[in-house]
Amino acid sequence: MKEKLLDAKDVSVAFKIAGEYQTALHKVNLSINRGEVLALVGESGSGKSTFAMSVMGLHNPEQTQVTGSIKLNDNELIGLTERQFDKYRGVSVGMIFQDPLSSLNPLMKIGDQIAEAITVHDKQSKEVKNRVQQLLLDVGIVDAKRVSQQYPHELSGGMRQRVMIAIALANEPDLIIADEPTTALDATIQAQILDLIKEIQLKKNAGILLITHDLGVVAEMADSVNVMYAGQIVEQASVEELFNNPKHPYTRSLLRADPSDVNPGEDLYAIPGTVPALNDMDHSKDLFLQRVPWLNDEVVNAPVSEELQKVNAQHYVRGNVWKTFEFEEPVNNEEQV
Amino acid sequence: MWQTVLRRVLLMIPQLILVSILVFMLAQLMPGDPFYGNLNPNSDLATIERMRHAAGLDLPWYEQYIKWVGNVLHGDLGTSYVVNKGWAVTRIIGQRIWPTLSMGIIAAILTYFLAITQALLAARNENKLIDRALMVWNTMTSAVPSIVFYFIMMVLFVYIIPIFPISGTGIDDSQNFTTNFFGNLSYAFLPALTIALFSTNSIFQYLRSNLLDQQAQDYVRTARAKGVQIKDVFRKHILRNAFLPIASGIGYSITGVLGGAIFAETIFGYPGLGALFVQALSGRDYTVITALMLLQGFLALMGGLLSDIISAWVDPRIRVK
Amino acid sequence: MSELVRIENLKVYYPVRSGFFNRITDNIKAVDDVSFTIEAGQTYGLVGESGSGKTTIGKSLVGLENPTSGKILFEGQEVTQIKQKKAINYNKDVQMVFQDSQSSLNPRKTIGEIIAEPLKSFGVPNKIGAGYGGERSFEQSKVDERVLELLDIVGLPARTISQYPFQFSGGQRQRIGVARALATNPRLIVADEPVSALDLSVQAQVLNFMKKIQRDYAISFLFISHDLGVVKYMTNNIAIMHNGRFVELGTTEDIFNDASHIYTKRLLSAIPSLDVSQREAKRVYRKKVEAEFTQHQDTYYQQDGKRLRAYDLQQVTKTHFVALENGGV
Ligand SMILES: Nc1ncnc2c1ncn2[C@@H]1O[C@H](COP(=O)(O)OP(=O)(O)O)[C@@H](O)[C@H]1O
Ligand SMILES: Nc1ncnc2c1ncn2[C@@H]1O[C@H](COP(=O)(O)OP(=O)(O)O)[C@@H](O)[C@H]1O
Ligand SMILES: [Mg+2]
Ligand SMILES: [Mg+2]
């Protein structure tokens, strides 16, 4: 039996914008098992980071409403006070961010920034120096001594991201959240960082929430995938199911937009339009269908059940349109943004 | 690092020469000289001419300049004609520099202390009552003309709540400041506080907005994700980054003391360089004036150097290896 | 096929200053002796990790940087130095699109003003088509007309003209950058990582669009990218660059089917594949290539101080060149 690590139920998030709360995340359900890599994928603006920040409790409480339930190891996180959250951040869950340069304090030595992750939860901790060196070695930085005396600007992008991973790992958390961890890196460095994350995950049997907009990264890393659009999950499947048997029109459109397997003579499928603005989201519909030009209004505006539809035990999809969805041929997608 | 400092110091030499020429020319342009105006009205023109000749004032300017520079290099800045007649200018300055320096340092410490605490309070409570109150107060002090502000301070602390000693009465002009250092230091407090209160506002505004900018930076999120409490994030991460652009100003603010002192010292009757400058100016005691301007020019250059060193010291990114 | 631009033995060095007198003590060899040719109407790919010198080549080509030595020939005419480029109004024929559309569009200017800039310098061509060399007009009404036409070409509405860059998304700003580059009917556009910052859906829009204008107006591209997936889709020829040098050069097929240099193999092995069933095998292969790359550097590189310096290119086939001693045999 798999051990459930993170269990999010009906998580909704609204931001106060110009005095009014606007929904950015609508009733998200997802769970991660110990030792599982779960990918959360979608275009920018679809709500991926908003979900991650809810798990971290890092939304500004005065501007944000978070409702629903997020349980980590059966402990409810929603409703914790700041002080309670401080004790769990960095201990039970560690986080890696997109841009490792701006995510490190430019005025602080690398070693001190890693050490802080340890000492903040364990003031008396001896051996901090040794643990910092060991963490650097764990993330593949061989001359740990020298690097811990350096400042962020003195390191390459890949090295910086390794340092961020060392920080996230400092207290051996059960869950690691990686929000676009390789988006700012070269392909070769990306491959190295992804391999490192995979290696660590296997060694520590941690759960990983991997946030990305890159389907290639998903295919390389994930055990299961959640596709998010406009603050909702539209498809949930094991990684094999998702790539071999994609169902939701959004997932299929994204896969068709990827140039890597397209013949240079053909056009790519360019999804017209953009993710709607927060004040323009009616979550009772399948919001992606607005971006499928050949569907008629009746289909686009049809109400959709909150429950995802089951395809099989490893595969759930939002709405019913996927059952009949076809791309219109030939694809005509010129000049739309 | 040291190489860079050394290079900067060497670069100061031509700058200093330029400053000295400028100062000297300014002195030349000043109307009149000590021998007209301030002498015994009975002395005749011939006597004055003789005295001017003895002082070398009838030579062409460049000869005077070279002679003057030569003397300056030997530590001879001439003798005062008016303020302390017959005293070496170096002696006068040597005596007056202590009150000003101590007042300047107290003022700088107070300024930064007040600005930092206020800015931290305001930024941590953005848009709350305390933030608004501090904004209003600081806008007020920046809007009030300095003369009005100084008089309010004067009236408030001298007549209404006289907790500080006020100098004119205490310090003896001719007595050496250092002999009763701490006793005399207490006189520095009121003018220093006044300068500080008046100059806090611009640093406060700047620092507050820097703090808010820095608060939105990614590294703050990282620190929070480690589990660092928000107040410690401010203390250990945000403050230093927000202070960075201001740190380089510290050098200038210490050396800018002379300018600020003129007003405060005159109003509070505090016997420092600022007051000396006013005295010398009204008496056209231009050996003293020239010396003070030279000192000010030198301090300004030192301020620049100090600022560069401070910036490099706090910011590893501009540190030269 | 006709040659449009030829680059011969291009070197761009940046001086490193140090010591007490701040003298030039060393050079960063950002571009170190590269040669290649861009054919009219074709897309040439320039690929390598960041810092390999791609942008520097692009900048020398459009005239934002003066080469240290070497030659740039445009239709046989020498345009190596910025002075020479100015003399023939070279930039009406060669334009650049930047990766970071955010910082390359002046935030205080309207979109209309931004696109009109090159038109004000080089005039409005009377006819559309790459490299139209005929009459050019400087009348304001013509400029306005052309700006509207360009917005239409890149698929933005006319009201865009009076809006500011911040009002647009990344993909839209990238199109505005393209519109500006297109304004003067250039024959070559240097596109420096034009889609690296974009989402997949927007990336597809921009790439389709670049292909379309190439078809319609026979424009050539120098397409700079570190994403081999995109490069494969976009280019006819590719140069792989490392530390300022070309390590491999060939047609897109040469590079993807017959990569010979370890650095090229390393880049190829890093492309994530959508085929889930292959991922373990790929990871193993990637590790193997990485090991070969780190352990056998002396086979593939000359040592140049601490930096790896690729050998000179050797011809393998008619189109394919590799930087190996003796061509790798
Ligand atoms: N603090 C916030 N205040 C207001 N709106 C926000 C805030 N954070 C995110 N949003 C909005 O919520 C939506 C989802 O954003 P985000 O979670 O960052 O998306 P993703 O990570 O998928 O790119 C976007 O429209 C974004 O503008
Ligand atoms: N203006 C400059 N001054 C000094 N060095 C530079 C300058 N521009 C680029 N470089 C250096 O030249 C090398 C190549 O840079 P660049 O052409 O930007 O690479 P790429 O575009 O492939 O990432 C890098 O080592 C970079 O640091
Ligand atoms: Mg995000
Ligand atoms: Mg570049």
Description:
- The complex is a heterotrimer of chains A (337), B (321) and C (329).
- Chain A is α/β, with parallel strands linked by helices.
- Chain A has helices spanning 48-56, 82-88, 110-119, 128-138, 144-148, 157-169, 187-204, 215-221, 239-244, 249-257, 297-301; strands at residues 4-17, 20-33, 37-41, 64-72, 75-76, 93-96, 175-179, 207-212, 224-229, 232-238, 309-312, 315-317.
- Chain A folds into two domains: 4-222, P-loop containing nucleotide triphosphate hydrolases (Rossmann fold); 252-323, no CATH class.
- Chain A is built from eleven helices and twelve strands.
- Chain A has an eight-stranded mixed β-sheet with strand order 6-7-8-3-9-10-12-11, sandwiched between helices. In chain A, strands 2-1-4-5 form a four-stranded antiparallel β-sheet, covered by helices on one side.
- In chain A, α3 (110-119) crosses α4 (128-138), α4 (128-138) crosses α6 (157-169) and α6 (157-169) runs parallel beside α7.
- The longest helix of chain A has 18 residues, at 187-204.
- Chain B is mainly alpha-helical and 321 residues long.
- Chain B is 74% helix and 0% strand.
- Chain B has helices at residues 2-29, 45-54, 61-73, 89-124, 129-143, 146-160, 181-215, 218-226, 230-255, 257-268, 273-282, 286-314.
- The longest helix of chain B is centred in the first third of the chain and has 36 residues, at 89-124.
- The radius of gyration of chain B is 24 Å and the shape is globular.
- Chain C folds into two domains: 3-235, P-loop containing nucleotide triphosphate hydrolases (Rossmann fold, 3-Layer(aba) Sandwich), CATH 3.40.50; 236-329, no CATH class.
- Chain C has helices at 54-62, 82-87, 101-104, 111-122, 140-153, 170-182, 200-217, 228-234, 252-257, 262-269, 279-295, 297-300; strands at residues 3-18, 23-39, 43-47, 69-74, 77-78, 94-97, 124-125, 136-137, 188-192, 220-225, 237-242, 245-251, 301-304, 307-310, 314-315, 321-322.
- In chain C, the strands form four sheets. Chain C has an eight-stranded mixed β-sheet with strand order 6-9-10-3-11-12-16-15, sandwiched between helices. In chain C, strands 2-1-4-5 form a four-stranded antiparallel β-sheet. In chain C, strands 7-8 form a two-stranded antiparallel ribbon.
- In chain C, α6 (170-182) packs parallel to α7 (200-217) and α10 runs antiparallel to α11.
- Chain C is globular and about 65 Å long.
- Chains in contact: A-B, A-C, B-C.
- Chains B and C meet through α1 of B and loops of C.
- One magnesium ion binds next to α1 of chain C.
